[in-house]
Amino acid sequence: MTKKTKVVIVGAGFGGIAVAKRLAGSDIEVTLIDRRNYHLFQPMLYQVATADLSPADIAWPIRGLFSGERNIAVVLSEVTATDKAAREVVAGGRRYPYDFLILATGSGNSYFNHPEWEPYAPGLKRIIDATEIRKRILLAFEHAEIASDATEQRRLLNFVMVGGGPTGVEMAGAMAELARVALARDFRHIDPKAARVVLVEAGERLLAGFAPDLSEYARRCLEKLGVEVQLGQPVQAVNEQGVQVGATFIPTATVIWAAGVKADGPGQWLGAETDRGGRVAVGPDLAVPGHPEIFVIGDAAKVIWEGERLVPGLAPAAKQGGRYVAEVIRARLENRAPPPFRYRHVGSLAMIGRNAAVADFGKLKLRGRLAWWFWGLVHIYLLINARAATLVLLEWAWAYLTRKKGARLITGLRPLFVEPAGPKP
Amino acid sequence: MTKKTKVVIVGAGFGGIAVAKRLAGSDIEVTLIDRRNYHLFQPMLYQVATADLSPADIAWPIRGLFSGERNIAVVLSEVTATDKAAREVVAGGRRYPYDFLILATGSGNSYFNHPEWEPYAPGLKRIIDATEIRKRILLAFEHAEIASDATEQRRLLNFVMVGGGPTGVEMAGAMAELARVALARDFRHIDPKAARVVLVEAGERLLAGFAPDLSEYARRCLEKLGVEVQLGQPVQAVNEQGVQVGATFIPTATVIWAAGVKADGPGQWLGAETDRGGRVAVGPDLAVPGHPEIFVIGDAAKVIWEGERLVPGLAPAAKQGGRYVAEVIRARLENRAPPPFRYRHVGSLAMIGRNAAVADFGKLKLRGRLAWWFWGLVHIYLLINARAATLVLLEWAWAYLTRKKGARLITGLRPLFVEPAGPKP
User: Fold this and answer.
1) Fold assignment, B115-257+354-402
2) How much is the ipTM here?
3) Would you call A398 and B409 a contact, using CB atoms and an 8 Å cutoff?
4) DSSP H or E run through A302
5) pLDDT tier at A2 (50, 70, 90 boundaries)?
6) Considering chain A, what is the average pLDDT of its residues?
7) Which of A170, B26, B53, B301 has its CA 20 to 30 A from that of A125?
């Protein structure tokens, strides 16, 4: 070959990074495009929202991951289209030619056809989501402290998490601990321990992907922490004043959305059919039907596993897809036939709170302190480098021992909302 | 006394915190008002701008500093006026009565009557300033990497620091190291080492507050790091395209302002006379003439020292003022006459770069590696708690050993600027 093979990867999440790592040091010219300059360790993003960690603890510059790999170019730009005929990706008004294209763009939040709920119920996808949620939570307490109206004060101290999956459970647990422990002595006019943390789930149990006894354990643990768990209750409306859950209206200023995800981008760019979650159906080699040179991996791909189950939108699944596609490309270049993709399910983990977590590995199920340690070890192990791991360990240790939160910053605050002139305090 | 004495402190910088700490545990009802929820360790803020540290490493929730002190209430609100007759402070539409008022509001950037320069030349005062500057610096490299026009590419790789005081020197040194070392291998189309870092100072030497030989040493060190130092050159204009310095126009997209500060707030609220820097002249007890119950401390106060010199706008000066005012209040309540305020100048420190700093303690002058160690030790010692100190030490050690920067995040990025459709890459 005189002309080098060009691979374009869109998205530097777990899937995209895995492809690039496997192609590093090869003869292939790799271009990795992302609209952000960092790779985010999303499973711990909720800890930024609850002021446990700083953004830089769990996000790393993509360039830094490939400094030494001369065959990998990182581009900060936003893809707007793919030109299948010309085999080019369009991003920021420029065109990037490819021989193989990997779309690993992940997913965003789904508001079940109610996009108007989004401003009142941010989800946890990007760093700015997490810092926005952190700001809303901390400001709710601040505003409650100086509120002159008792009804408004109670409303400000209600916090509603929507969605009983791992993210919702983790947020609710951390939120309860924030209110009941970390902030307990910091206010003079309100009692943060009186804050109401409500976790709303439309289904009949929390953590639907886990064994039922672990779901039940999670519910009991959260209730012990003071979380109100409402099951079988779909959210009917979200607005400035609060959330309509079944027949009840919960007045609140802080709603956090963890109820559903939806991929966009690949389906639209390719003109491909998608399922309700926006996922593009791919073949056994993760390529798009009719386009063996285009692959979709991770949250944006619809891959069937064990006959009828969908491969879940988890980091390990995206990584496996990424590593597999890198092998397919190498095989194709060597005129070998690649074996079909086989997803290997490792297990599911969810943190609940201090000394409480659940882990479901099929036959092996863990709960309580053991699962909590396991959760911590796995997450530290998966962090990208020793620096991040040490920093996070240190912040966790400090938080565990002092029961304080280290990253309680409200940034980007001006202008502050101004209360109508009330009675003198 | 049946009625408790009320002290209102406006501003939770070094001065305000010092007053509150000295009044903690007393019978006095203290209200500490700040428009932000954190106390910022400003001397290290430039390290957030250059991606060395995270905001939470050098900023702590004010509430957390006084959790256990029941006589101190923290209020997140923005003061808009003081009512001297009623002895009340107005903030967020509410009124806070006081027996003693301490205004410790610090200073903002001064653009020498050119407020129109501000959007193009942010200063380093708040956390959002530092993250904004970090974003601009990192985006300049990102945009240069994909720029199709060579002139524009060169413009993007020019970085101009205005002001040769400690902040300007520290920014210029850290900026040069960022470009020449940390980013050196991370791009494929540009060479970050070719970035031009220019430090512009209107006066005849850098670090005017230091001994002349230390100024000269700083200049030589910076030039060794690749910084262009331009002395005796006032800035004539700053706009979207660059900076006019004397007769030369430097095209750039990144200007950082460290040329002057100005206090506002107290002078206006009190209707008091101020100097050109917005400082309120106070008496020997730091009280406002005619109002023994109102004190101004820190950057916002004009205090004369050693006959004619102004007490400098440094953290130690603000702290000394704060501690002193707390003693004055205690003395007044006990009908004692307080001694006049005496400023004790500790010395001046400025970091230049790896193994290079300057320290001027009058008789004792340090430079080079020894001053560098000293700078680090002093700053670690001054950090608010063991957690912060450990985190910062760890980040510094990692950066020193690997020569990488740990906090290279561009957040709040959408929408990305879109380049006009150019030729294919």
Assistant:
1) FAD/NAD(P)-binding domain (3.50.50)
2) 0.87
3) no
4) strand A301-302
5) low
6) 91
7) B53
